[in-house]
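This section describes the prediction task in plain terms. A model, or a person checking by hand, is given the sequence of a single protein chain and must write out its three-dimensional structure as a string of tokens. No templates, partner chains or ligands are provided. The sample shown here is typical of the held-out split.
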Amino acid sequence: MSDERNQERWHLRISGRVQGVSYRASCEEKARSLGLTGYVRNLPDGDVEVVAEGQQDGLQELADWCWQGPPAARTEDITIDKGRASGEFEGFSTR
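The expected answer:
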């Protein structure tokens, strides 16, 4: 397991055509492949929220992926808040 002192927590809010296009399932698959923990979920306003913890390079790769998303998605904007990892997640899930 990697050194927890180097772990970060990124909270992403993705807007655009991101619901009803398999965004959450694809995001979960990508995050797991990068060894990240956290969750992805739809928000009532049509945005998607991602809370991910892990190494900065993996988090950046996930954020870059979020701009593309699955084939039917169209990402218009992403906000990212960065902080310290809490270590509260066992894996990565869809909520």
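For orientation: DSSP finds two helices and five strands in the chain.
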